[in-house]
Design the sequence.
């Protein structure tokens, strides 16, 4: 661990739909000695809609946050959200072209050098903190929990942009969960798409795709799914009831953020990790775990 | 000096963007030029005749041809002027095609540049001197590296042609990939049945000296006279004594050694003979698994060996061989299955490679030819083949076609239906590449006679569901997603260069492409030569190849060696470095920079140390001449005077243009 300070970009989800992801991210980072400095006056990264409309303007949205972080003298932007990460990386990629960089600078009211890096919080934990350091901080190992690691479509892709883990068979969440003491089965659908932002225009599609992921998790006997994307969490957790009525199933699979699981293993309470905010309550699993810990 | 200039149009190749006629007209003004003309195709027979006629009529003693690259035709024109009685080195070529017409569209600028290039060539040839080759003896022995089917064919053809052959093979038996195959396409004949007799021929031929379980340590020398150091790796078994009885294998307690011949689908013993038809049929100990080596005690094989051949103290041995030519036939490797995360990446036992499947089909394989699932040993009823697994995939850095997979998948589909008649066979393909003789018909047979179901489209994911594998892909002809519930999945993994191909290329000083495959001299016209004279290529070391192509190339390489050795003496190129001993200060900086080791120290009678160029080793690269502080070492045909003359001609052109 280098003890670096990072420019923290929470993005809209960490302040809204995925507030527990934001809370657990901050707490876990603090416990790990990773200093997250929230970017001043940050704005929307552009996320899903902007890049489909105008590449330059969407680049400028993300670039504004990157430029502010640069102004704050920080070398790496960190975000828990894969969509924010891709938006930031796209802006940095766009800025590689001198012409585009000039145009971006004209759109922004502050200078943008594009020298900053962008990484996910998962990447920081996996690569810079490392699983060994993580394991040393475990107070309550996740004994007896069988957890399916789920990465979704965006976290490691496109590979030339993500520059992290294997695009087809990523292992970072697997290794982290193992270090926390959980049982991690091979999850064949670890990079399948959950339906992403189609929840509003094409809900059936999301229900079908997310349903397949839940089905696979059930088949491999997972107690829960662990992920690192707020949209995936929303589709799998919040819509689980809809999925059940759509497909005639009765899934009851809790969906966790990786930071929440790290937090639990570090000894934070489930409330501190915001587990009470989830639609599918993990009480049963947590009870089983508590009993296992007492053994 | 009387110089003739011949400017080529090369049809529109040059004539389209260079005014060749104007170039010829301008050249008439240059010093020493006695004759200048342009011609549509200078390299054609009438074109060459015109040069010869002009030499006689105008009493020329130097010739400049302004045409294409000297790589293409310098030798052609040297022979032309030689036939007209000139020294072949009184010739210069101005490259006005690759360096001029092909790279610019501005005809006026191109013409100006062409004139300048011709002017430089004229200035250079005016300073040329007559050079004469010297002749050296040839060692008429040939080294063949790699004893797969291509190397074996090359070795046999050379040996039958009367040459002594040194055949070096990395593995402990010869036979290569072909020895691992069950049947061959499109004839479905037993692979080892046709290869075995050839292997025996190689093993018993009195002109072939076979070194198996050996690698090339170092190569020095030049065409006609190579010195090769061969590392004979320790087998820990005295092969002079070993009879191949196999008793040691029966008794060896370490039974979990990696089985290379069976591609890891089975285990073997730590001391083993790789397969029943192995040549030489001798045992070898794999020290990674041998208890004597890993635990320090066992010694069972030494106790049971009836001839006392086991020697745990054996060490690698370096052997030196002298040869005159080298045939490289190191074959190919296969992509690591773990690079294919979407297909299970080695995580699922029931996803295997084509060559592993080949071993399962093989009667002398680990299952005696019964197809079983690695996970539970049961007979699979539904088998899915996936072609282009890693090939033709830019995202994996392998955009090339692996050449033989379409065909071996068709073969394996046929064999599967033969072995398990009530099985379902699916083949996912991008498109079928079956251009060989009888190949297309063979693929049709797999589909029509044997009922293999071909699905055109890529597979996106392979994952387990219960005891089955789900193969999820797309059928691009139906335009729909498909899922096949399979018992076994076979991947046609991409062919790669042989492991260690780059290192060997460095030792041989031959070039290789971005994927590690060796580069031939010319892709169409010199397919088995390399740019290093005396070194030839055969088989898949140059790119993925099937058996007929490999055998054909093996024979072709052998014929090249036989042609090379048909002369008793070889000509050495006189365009090499030469030391002016009176100017040499003996610093030997030249020897330090020479990449070929062509410069040695020499003591004169007065005790002075000077450098000396070993004529046959020097490749004429010119590094030494750039290094030499007093300018004592000069590259013949590229002397300082000649290069300065060229530069002066160019400066003169610019001066005239700026003042005019």
Sequence:
């Amino acid at each position: 661990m280098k003890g670096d300070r990072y420019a923290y970009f929470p993005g809209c989800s960490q302040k809204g739909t995925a507030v527990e992801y934001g809370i657990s991210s901050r707490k876990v980072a603090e416990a790990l000695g990773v200093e997250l400095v929230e970017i001043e006056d940050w704005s929307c990264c552009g996320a899903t809609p902007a890049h489909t409309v105008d590449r330059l303007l969407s680049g400028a949205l993300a670039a504004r946050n990157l430029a502010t972080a640069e102004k704050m003298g920080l070398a790496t932007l960190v975000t828990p959200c894969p969509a924010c990460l891709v938006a930031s990386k796209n802006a940095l990629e766009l800025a590689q072209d001198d012409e585009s960089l000039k145009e971006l600078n004209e759109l922004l009211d502050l200078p943008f050098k594009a020298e900053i890096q962008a990484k996910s919080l998962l990447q920081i934990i996996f690569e810079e903190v490392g699983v060994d350091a993580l394991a040393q901080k475990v107070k309550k190992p996740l004994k007896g929990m069988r957890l399916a690691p789920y990465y979704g479509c965006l976290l490691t892709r496109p590979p030339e942009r993500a520059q992290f883990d294997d695009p087809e068979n990523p292992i970072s969440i697997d290794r982290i969960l193992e270090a926390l003491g959980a049982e991690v089965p091979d999850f064949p659908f670890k990079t399948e798409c959950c339906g992403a932002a189609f929840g509003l225009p094409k809900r059936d599609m999301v229900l079908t795709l997310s349903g397949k992921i839940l089905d696979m998790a059930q088949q491999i006997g997972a107690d829960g799914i662990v992920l690192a994307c707020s949209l995936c969490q929303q589709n799998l957790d919040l819509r689980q009831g809809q999925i059940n009525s759509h497909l005639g199933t009765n899934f009851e699979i809790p969906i966790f953020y990786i930071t929440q699981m790290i937090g639990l293993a570090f000894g934070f309470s489930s409330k501190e990790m915001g587990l009470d905010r989830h639609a599918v309550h993990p009480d049963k699993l947590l009870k089983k775990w508590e009993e296992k810990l007492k053994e | 000096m009387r110089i003739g200039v011949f400017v080529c149009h090369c049809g529109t190749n040059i004539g389209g963007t260079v005014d060749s006629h104007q170039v010829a007209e301008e050249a008439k003004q240059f010093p020493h030029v006695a004759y200048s003309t342009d011609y549509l195709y200078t390299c054609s027979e009438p074109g060459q005749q015109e040069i010869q006629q002009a030499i006689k009529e105008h009493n020329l003693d130097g010739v400049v041809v302004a045409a294409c690259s000297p790589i293409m035709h310098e030798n052609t024109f040297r022979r032309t002027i030689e036939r007209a009685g000139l020294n072949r080195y009184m010739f210069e070529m101005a490259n006005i095609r690759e360096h001029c017409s092909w790279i610019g569209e501005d005809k006026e600028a191109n013409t100006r540049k062409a004139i300048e290039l011709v002017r430089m060539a004229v200035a250079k040839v005016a300073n040329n001197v007559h050079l004469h080759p010297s002749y050296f003896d040839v060692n008429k022995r040939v080294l063949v590296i790699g004893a797969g089917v291509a190397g074996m064919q090359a070795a046999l053809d050379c040996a039958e042609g009367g040459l002594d052959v040194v055949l070096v093979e990395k593995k402990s038996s010869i036979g290569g990939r072909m020895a691992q195959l069950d049947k061959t396409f499109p004839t479905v004949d037993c692979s080892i049945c046709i290869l075995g007799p050839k292997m025996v021929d190689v093993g018993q031929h009195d002109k072939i000296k076979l070194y198996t379980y050996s690698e090339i340590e170092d190569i020095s020398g030049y065409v006609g006279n190579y010195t090769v150091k061969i590392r004979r790796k320790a087998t820990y078994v005295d092969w002079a004594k070993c009879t191949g009885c196999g008793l040691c294998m029966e008794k060896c307690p370490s039974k979990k050694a990696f089985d290379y011949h069976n591609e890891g689908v089975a285990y073997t013993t730590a001391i083993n003979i790789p397969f029943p038809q192995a040549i030489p049929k001798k045992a070898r100990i794999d020290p990674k698994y041998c208890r004597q080596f890993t635990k320090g005690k066992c010694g069972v094989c030494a106790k049971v060996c009836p001839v006392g051949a086991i020697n745990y103290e054996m060490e690698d041995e370096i052997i030196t061989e002298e040869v005159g030519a080298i045939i490289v036939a190191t074959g190919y490797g296969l992509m690591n299955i773990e690079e294919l995360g979407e297909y299970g990446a080695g995580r699922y036992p029931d996803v295997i490679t084509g060559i592993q499947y080949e071993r399962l089909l093989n009667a002398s394989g680990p299952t005696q030819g019964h197809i079983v699932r690695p996970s539970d040993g049961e007979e699979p009823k539904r088998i899915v083949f996936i072609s282009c697994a890693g090939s033709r995939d830019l995202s994996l850095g392998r955009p090339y076609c692996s050449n033989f997979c379409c065909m071996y998948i068709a073969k394996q589909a046929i064999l599967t239906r033969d072995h398990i008649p009530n099985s379902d066979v699916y083949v996912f393909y991008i498109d079928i590449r079956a251009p060989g003789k009888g190949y297309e018909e063979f693929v049709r047979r797999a589909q029509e006679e044997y009922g293999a179901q071909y699905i055109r489209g890529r597979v996106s994911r392979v994952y387990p569901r219960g005891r089955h594998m789900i193969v999820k892909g797309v059928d691009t002809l139906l335009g729909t997603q498909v899922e096949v519930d399979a018992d076994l999945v076979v991947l046609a993994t991409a062919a790669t260069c042989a492991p260690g191909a780059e290192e060997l290329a460095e030792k041989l000083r031959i070039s290789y492409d971005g994927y590690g495959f060796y580069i031939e001299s010319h892709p169409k016209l010199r397919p088995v030569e390399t740019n290093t004279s005396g070194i030839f290529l055969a088989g898949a070391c140059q790119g993925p190849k099937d058996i007929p192509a490999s055998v054909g190339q093996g024979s072709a390489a052998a014929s090249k060696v036989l042609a090379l050795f048909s002369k008793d003496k070889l000509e050495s190129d006189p365009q090499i470095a030469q030391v002016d001993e009176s100017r040499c200060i003996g610093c030997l900086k030249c020897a330090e920079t020479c990449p070929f080791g062509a410069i040695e120290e020499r003591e004169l009678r007065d005790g002075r140390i000077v450098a000396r160029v070993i004529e046959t080793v020097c490749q004429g690269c010119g590094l030494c001449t750039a290094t030499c502080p007093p300018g004592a070492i000069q590259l013949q045909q590229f002397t300082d005077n000649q290069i300065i003359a060229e530069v002066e001609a160019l400066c003169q052109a610019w001066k005239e243009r700026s003042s005019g």
